[in-house]
Amino acid sequence: MLSLEDAQPLVRTDRPGYRPWRARVSAVTPLSPHFTRVTFRDEELKFFGTDLLDQRIKVIFPFPGRPLFELPDTEGNAWWDFWRDLPAEDQAPFRTYTVRDVRPTLGEVDVDFVVHSVPAGAELGPAGRWLLEASAGDEVYLVGPDARSIHSAIGIDWHPGDATRLLLAGDETALPAIAGILSALPADAIGDALIEVPSSGDIISLTHPAGVNVRILPREDAEHGAALTAAVDEWLAGHGELLEAARAPRGQKLNEVNLDTEILWETPTDEDSGEFYAWLAGESGVIKQLRRTLVQGHGVDRRRVAFMGYWRIGKAEN
């Protein structure tokens, strides 16, 4: 017999799309020199959203040597109000990531973390410190989608509409999102994915349709974004006819974004995107340059391109 709670409708219009989920680490799996997959598990994660693609979540980490703080039993953004009202010394750090996989029947969620290289004399950030010592049983909060809400797709910025020619470009922080998008594309999809990673050891096999060409670009000792920028420029030079068809009908003005005080984030929601659609994410300075190249240099309609500055060199998220 169903309990009264189980008998309630699972999907409700009044249920927030996001909520905090307390979860424990069940596995830590190195994927390459600069990528580590962490599997989180909890009984409640059977209700974690499964839309995937490039869906953003937040991971709230405990302070070193301290247990994870207690969040009240809240839904939606109430966690943020609670966190913000804490004394500064008690505001546990959080960072934004992409859901890599969800297994509802097991109550498991995978998140792929970038293992950042730290220059001599510098210190790891809170996420890097946590990842270095993460082991089974460690607790975090995942602030992510609730499959029981009609708004569970919030945090997804992949909106290609009816586009038939795709371009994805990003650095290592965008690789999990690009991987999620590629694995969800229809079998007849056509396009290119250009991904800059720290080293040749980070060339990871990705599932993708046969018509999508995936190039993983090891950075090695070059400047961050140099390999990606060169690959995008090469791609643009070879697709003049496609870009001409994607031109805006009139001149476009780009608002100047101060990357030290603002977030570069511009994602079209028009489902009628035409033949071409591009999705670009990664370090804000690099994405800003690519944005200028596509929109001003080639006149591509802004409604056909998503630009997302995932992070900024030298700047923490919170």
From TrEMBL:
For this protein, the record's InterPro entries field holds:
FAD-bd_FR_type, FNR_nucleotide-bd, Riboflavin_synthase-like_b-brl, SIP_FAD-bd, SIP_fam, SIP_rossman_dom
UniProt organism field:
Mycetocola tolaasinivorans
Q: Which GO terms describe its molecular function?
A: oxidoreductase activity
List each copy of the FAD-binding FR-type domain by range: 18-152
Protein name as annotated: Siderophore-interacting protein
Taxonomy, superkingdom: Bacteria
